Amino acid sequence: MSKIVLLVEDERRIREIVADYFKQQQWIVYEADNGKRALEMFEITKPNLIILDILMPGMDGFSVCRQIRNQSDVPIILLTAKSDDDDKIHGFELGADDYVTKPFSPKVLVVRANTLMRRLEGKVSPQGHNLRFGQAVLNTLAHRLNIEDIEIELTPKEYELLQFMIQNKGIVLSRDTILDRVWGADFEGDSRVVDTHIKKLRSKLGHESRYIRTVIGTGYRFEVEE
Length: 226
Description:
By secondary structure, this protein is of the alpha/beta class. 41% of the residues lie in helices and 23% in strands.
């Protein structure tokens, strides 16, 4: 199946180099040089992945990310020249899945993109693909969460986080463990991103958030009554 990436970057030379690397890995590449064009291309191309520069004139990447997340859970990797952790956390709060700081290696960016896509494609076997807790059902084949037959929209990273916690129920998971298993060993942020995503996930789970227990000074545990 073809992989389609929408590359949003206002610097032409960077855009051309990154596009070439993705094409070498058999990606279909569409390009946009500003936020407004990015939203137009998103509607037209229906990409599997978006590489999104934050510092663009006019509509910045944060605004683009916010608008896309209002209608889609397509994976988003943010690009920025800033290394401020608060800036990164803001991106994750908006629903981004990964964050790459300039200057970066285009080859490494493509590797991270491929790794992200493999994680989201699902590595769980068909057996027992419905993970149940309380009134909630997480379908690992369809990547859908339903609570009392109502579908709850999750970002790809929220889905990965919830699935990982359910599959390790009863185990205390440190923030570092969660970062390594859900975000990957090459993640460039700090553990606050875990707390941010747990907070958003609890909000979406509503009453069923009671299963996510905070272990003070360590991390979290998914506790399901047997």
